[in-house]
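Minutes, methods subgroup
Present: GH (chair), OT, SY

1. OT presented the first of two proteins processed in the latest run. Sequence and structure tokens recorded below as shown on screen.
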Amino acid sequence: MKWLITGGCGFIGSSLINRLVGDESNSIRIVDNLTVGRPESLIGRKTQTVAEEDFHSLEWSNDLIQICKQDICNADDAVKIAAGADIIVHLAANTGVPQSVENPHKDCVTNVLGTLNYLEAARHCDVKKFIFASSGAPVGEVEPPIHEEIVPHPVSPYGASKLAGEAYCSVYYNCYGVETTALRFGNVYGPGSLHKMSVVAKFLNSIVREEEVTIYGDGSQTRDFIYIDDLIDAIKASSVKSGIGGEVFQIATSREVTVNEIVDNLFEAAVAQGLKKPTLSYSSPRQGDVARNYSDTSKAKKYLNWEAKFDLKDGLRQTVSWFLKNSNIAS
């Protein structure tokens, strides 16, 4: 297939692409503003950075990963870049609750208009499938487990913008026939997440630098932590499944894990690999964070034939090992 992946140089995007390059029949094109993503995270094929003036004359390649350095908020270029694609995987976003609370306008423009631009590109370019990266944030503060039938009540601008993206995906399926699927990712962790701002990556960056690790709140808040390989399996399953247009799926592990439990496992894995046990501190809870969050993934198992397989301890050990090898701190 011809894959267009927004945010393709980021953690999830590069992990997906590094899996896709194993099939020589796949053509891969990226749109990324490169403010966070790193092209060097892509392996398996040479990359070609495409100049903006050449977007209109792009031809798909099975030999090169094409990188279009552009912001998803540029609507005109979205149509040029998407021409000829079979599938759009829309990963690019303003990510994180704290960032959205600090600047809700930027969060809205990027996550709502950016998504709309690539849905429009899919419509005008007759792209067959559109996969949208969402999260549990649209649901808000509810009694978990989260499932797809809960009425959303977001408590952060990030949750509101992701809910808007899900709504537009539903509209573009029902009004225009674009085969959209929204995947609500759990808290993703794993090798390749060095520059990610998620909780595991932030903790690990502090651990390998021998800095103090800070938990916001008392650490009893819960999340559903999913290993990157499991997440990529879910994206791939969605890409080939028919009859799921307009649907939303929880993509997580169905396991509730406290932040304190994550820290304990990370400290254990770090010490086992030769690092000094860090100092731990606690700070005030962050505005917009929910107290409990984990998912019921039975719908994904039923319709996508998918479920998470990675053990949390094993996944965290592998992530610690990768951080040690790829940071500036010697193991």
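2. SY then presented the second protein from the same run.
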Amino acid sequence: MQFDRGSGYFLGSIYINYGLTALLVTAGYFACFFTEWVTGDALLYGATAFCVLFPIWFFRFARSFWLGFDYYFDPPAAPTNRAAAPAEKPSFE
């Protein structure tokens, strides 16, 4: 399977990475803000650090998810020429 599909192919993985980061930061921010577990500057610095570090760590996983989505929704086509197709077993009937 060819993984280098062309320029801009992995743009969808950026959407996955950004979307999950935004979802986690938003949920975590409101959870910490309303429970008053962490307040003020600590919450701001923690959320900022998470927004910088999490996408760097999640980068490869987002690409893997993108490849999985692409393979699931647009599977590779079967070979069209007989030379590329696997050889058939002869029948002796």
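Chair's summary of item 2: The mean pLDDT is 85.
Next meeting: continue with the remaining queue.
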